[in-house]
Amino acid sequence: MVSPRSFIRGHRPRQRWLWAVPFGFTLLFLFLLFTNSPVHTVSSLRGPDPPASLPVAKASSAEPSRNGSSTYLRADQLTDPMSGRPSTTDYVALEDPYDHPQLWTSVQCTGSRLNRSCIFDNFYYVPSEEKFHIVLPASSRIRSAPYAGRPVEVAKDVVLSGPYDGSVVTEASVRALIDGCSDFFMGDVDYEPTGNRFEPIIHIFDSPLDAQMWVMYHTTTGATFRPGLTVYGFALYMHNVGHALYDGIYPMFISMLRFGYGAADVNVLFKMVYNGVLKPGMHVIGDDIAPVFGGGTYTHLDDLTDPLYRFQRVIVGSRRMAHRSFNTYSTLPGSYTYENALWYFSRRLQSRYGLIDSKTAMDPAAEIKPGVRDGTCRGVITDNKRFDAADRKMFYELIDKLKDEGVCDFTFVDWKKYSFEEQLELFTNSDVYVSGVGTGITRAHLTRPGGAVVNLGELEKFGTPERVQISYRDVQFAAGAPYLQALYYPAKLWNVYGRLQPEAVELIVRQAVDRVKTGWTLPRPLEDGISIVGEAMAKYCRASPSDCEDLESEFNVDDRPDQDDPWCSLCMWPDYIGLDTMWRADTTCEWYDKTRQCKLNYALYDSCRSPDHLAFDA
User: Fold this and answer.
1) DSSP output for 529-558
2) What is the pTM of this model?
3) Which of 454, 494, 505, 500 shows the shortest CA–CA distance to 477?
4) Where in the chain are the domains?
5) Mean pLDDT by 10 residues, the chain (618 residues)
6) Which of 24, 113, 258, 322 has the maximum number of C-beta atoms within 10 A of its C-beta?
């Protein structure tokens, strides 16, 4: 006998399609939700993520004064405002910029193909992939506007004819737009241990729903929203103050300047490199400096653990903009060009630590007041790992002598005895800065305007087989500062004696003090501040611009990766040119099991090189 219950169960109609009804209602609900939501992203499920008010972009070039001239030297007169200035800002134009404004990515880039700077709005990041993502509608187009030192205002700025003629976007065209924009100063080079390259994944969708479904694929609760203006880069060796400042923060700052954000508070996002010294979880000097310099939040990229992030606005661009981005002018990138980057970097760093007036620090029309303040000369001699006990004894005796004579009040900076903030204060209030090469001289640019920097150089051993030569490495921090004089301990004395001579050190320090007290006309012409290596480069480039271009490409490993040996960039300084076995005619260097020689017009360079720029077999 069959029970009534089993009978009913056994004879129920098999309408298998009914499972699709709730699924269909779910899709319909999501479609109506997305197409009518004021936020237009999956984040609507948990409430809107209101965008923050972005800082107002201000171009770093001041307006001319009313009479067309100025009775004083302004910050924006330190460099040529047209030197290196790009002609356009190229951008992705949305067909309707007000349609789904918090879904689609907008992109705009400026600068040359060798050091591109870009802004991304609604920039997505997927931590599990370690990749950024660009999300675009298929109807968007790529256009160009005149470069104005600020982000493009699509509704107002003129559209220019040119290579970006308004064609509908493709993955290839967007890739070409951002080509040359990298989070790493060496570019997208395979250099241990850089991790993934900066290659955003580009998505082009036919509809907002398609884009929103892509978001749902990664997270059902909505992308984690990071509001405000963020600057992103790759930090190399953040445990070292020199690398943190000038290979990490400084390159990103140039991109900030290019878009008018030099004075703005920014969130700092760093990709970190871990090695034998720097390990995950360690707190290093770069972690202290970055949030103060930025003024907003500070985050390591590998600390982002949610499935998907959406950044309101991100500035990216570090390629060929660092201390280690060599050029034939012996300057820091951006320092003698329209960005005037070294001046503004110095002022921002000093103002963020409360050492100068923050209201005028970044003002392009601010007056530059050179000369000894209050009639009292102050100076620093910074310690250096290349100095020995005899050198330090010489420096202390010289400091006492100059103070007793009332010439100048010097402080010997033993790094262990001064905090980073105390070091900055000493440098900011100094008229003369003395040190050898390396980290010891990197903050020379903080010296007061009208001051002088003495680079003592070093006798360096290098190469295989090993050779000895005079080196003035890190000249960029003085040669690249148009508001400072640069003096160099004579190479001939290094060649003859093999170490610093007290009488010669005293003489060059007194010369620096005399220049500061006597005064000199700012800005300093670039050629008046370069070392004997810089002079050789200048002669070489004037004699053969094509050879000069080849040499500068070899300095930067990612310029021509199919033509140049990367170790010609990774393992060199300009001081080695013509002397190291990799950079000499008829010689080679065995490095990583490979015979290497860098390309150079050896005969021409030897004719340009100073007779005092020598190397000796060790």
Assistant:
1) G--HHHHHHHHHHHH-HHHHHHHHHHHSTT
2) 0.89
3) 454
4) 85-325, 373-534, 545-600+609-617
5) 34 39 47 42 45 83 47 93 95 86 96 92 97 96 96 93 85 95 76 70 97 96 97 88 92 96 97 82 93 98 96 94 80 93 98 96 94 86 95 98 98 95 97 93 96 95 80 89 97 95 98 96 94 93 93 78 74 78 76 77 94 87
6) 258
